[in-house]
Specification:
Elements: E1 10-13, E2 15-19, E3 23-29, E4 40-50, E5 58-64, E6 67-75, E7 78-82, E8 87-90, E9 95-99, E10 104-109, E11 117-126, E12 137-141, E13 146-149, E14 152-161, E15 164-165, E16 174-181, E17 185-190, E18 196-204, E19 206-208, E20 211-213, E21 217-223, E22 227-232, E23 236-243, E24 251-253, E25 256-258, H1 261-273, E26 300-301, E27 307-308
């Protein structure tokens, strides 16, 4: 425990990963010390990137199973296409939520005419057993609940925080919220004791219970907190992740979240054969081939990254 009886926080540095031909992201989850926060199992932060006169984001059609994708922009535009026939441009302050269920494929690209800056995050939510085999679906929410008080504007992207509740459909107790601070603003944020939480900075710097937070890292706040104190001298844009600890063990590989090595190998085979994940129509290019699988069996892990015995 830290001073004032709060659980110890841990700053997790991200690492850079190429995404497609033109975009490099900062991967914040999963990491070896911390695989998940609630059902949040994957976080990529990108930008701010100058894409003036450049293609911007160009991610060809690729498959997903066992998860939801959450796209949140600070700047720029992304055109989403999927195998359900969805065609939707997302802009800052809006939410694209894609639920893969048993299987879906999609592409993500900057429109031909796009703003000069690209900046945002994409996250995955692991689906629990009772939801991961359901049909795929796509949601776009242009208006999300927000409120401003004492120099802090809170927008709830998924879940609920205080009196604010997102219309987005999720399958476990979960929270994703943007916190936008004016310069010099402070916030004492009430938290649920049964959740675990993390914070990342999209812009600017903040102090969270005495720990400094800047873009490029994820601050894991631990479990059993009922409050956290945040202040930003120069103004900051933060994203709060929270959720009830996800107890189902997972196997994650490429774009798949599953429960066993065999499930992953079957999903890869079905993507290669053209089965299960459908076709993304309208994308001007080839779909993304799956990488080669490792020769050893993929490991089943719990939310903390511990290897579990499997099949």
């Amino acid at each position: 425990m830290t001073l004032a009886g709060l659980p110890a926080s841990v700053l997790l540095p991200g690492h850079d990963v190429p995404l497609g031909r033109y975009t490099t992201v900062r991967r914040l989850l999963p990491q070896r010390p911390r695989r998940m926060i609630g059902a949040w199992c994957f976080v990529d932060q990108f930008g701010p990137d100058d894409v003036l006169g450049r293609p911007g984001m160009q991610v060809p059609p690729h498959p997903h199973t066992g998860l939801q994708t959450v796209t949140w922009l600070v700047a720029g535009e992304v055109l989403h296409r999927d195998s359900l026939g969805s065609l939707q441009t997302i802009r800052p302050g809006q939410l694209n939520l894609m639920t893969s269920g048993h299987g879906i494929s999609h592409s993500e690209e900057s429109p031909v005419e796009h703003p000069p800056i690209m900046h945002g995050i994409q996250l995955w939510v692991a689906l629990p057993e009772d939801a991961r085999h359901q049909p795929a679906r796509f949601e776009h929410h242009a208006d999300l609940p927000s409120a401003s008080t004492a120099g802090v504007t809170t927008t709830v992207v998924v879940g609920e925080l205080g009196a604010l509740r997102s219309p987005a459909r999720v399958h476990t107790p979960l929270l994703g919220a943007e916190l936008l601070f004016d310069a010099g603003a402070r916030l004492e944020l009430s938290l649920r004791r049964d959740f675990e939480y993390g914070l990342l900075a999209l812009d600017g710097a903040a102090e969270v219970d005495g720990a400094e937070l800047t873009p490029g890292g994820l601050l894991y706040l631990g479990e059993e907190r009922t409050t956290t104190n945040i202040r930003s001298t120069d103004g900051a844009r933060l994203f709060l992740l929270g959720g009830e600890p996800f107890v189902e063990p997972l196997v994650m590989w490429w774009n798949f979240v599953a429960r066993s090595d065999a499930e992953i190998r079957q999903a890869r085979e079905e993507w290669a054969s053209g089965d299960r994940f459908g076709v993304v129509r309208g994308y001007a290019g080839e779909r993304l081939p799956a990488p080669a699988l490792p020769t050893t069996k993929l490991k089943i892990r719990d939310r903390a990254g511990n290897t579990l015995s499997g099949e």
